[in-house]
Design goal:
- By secondary structure, the protein is α/β, with parallel strands linked by helices.
- The chain has helices at 15-27, 39-48, 65-73, and strands at 4-11, 30-36, 53-56, 85-87.
- The chain has a 4-stranded parallel β-sheet.
- Strand 3 (53-56), helix 3 and strand 4 form a beta-alpha-beta unit.
- The longest helix has 13 residues, at 15-27.
- The radius of gyration is 13 Å and the shape is globular.
- The protein starts with a strand and ends in a 5-residue tail after the last strand.
- The model has no long low-confidence stretch (mean pLDDT 95).
Length: 92
């Protein structure tokens, strides 16, 4: 399988879920994967690293998924307000 030339940020406070998502992404060829345990850590990472896709949980401490998405979509503060975001959650 070829490597996909994209960088993905996984945001989840559950380390096991981050590992599962990382393994799935790795299985389809994604090699540049960053991880963050909450929205604050994720946004900080986005300010210093180029990211092409965000996969985020909704329920997290400090800055939850909805708050992270609002912060990312804020054109005044975000390094990439149009980045694709996938919400992956156990909540229905």
């Amino acid at each position: 399988m070829s490597t996909l030339p994209i960088s993905v940020l996984i945001v989840d406070d559950n380390k096991h879920m981050r590992t599962i998502v990382r393994t799935m992404l790795h299985g389809i060829g994604v090699r540049w994967i960053h991880e963050a345990a909450d929205g604050l850590e994720a946004f900080s990472l986005m300010l210093s690293q180029a990211v092409d896709l965000v996969v985020t949980d909704l329920s997290m401490p400090r800055l939850n998924g909805i708050e992270l998405i609002r912060k990312i979509r804020d054109e005044r503060a975000s390094p990439n307000p149009y980045i694709p975001i996938i919400v992956l959650s156990g909540h229905s």
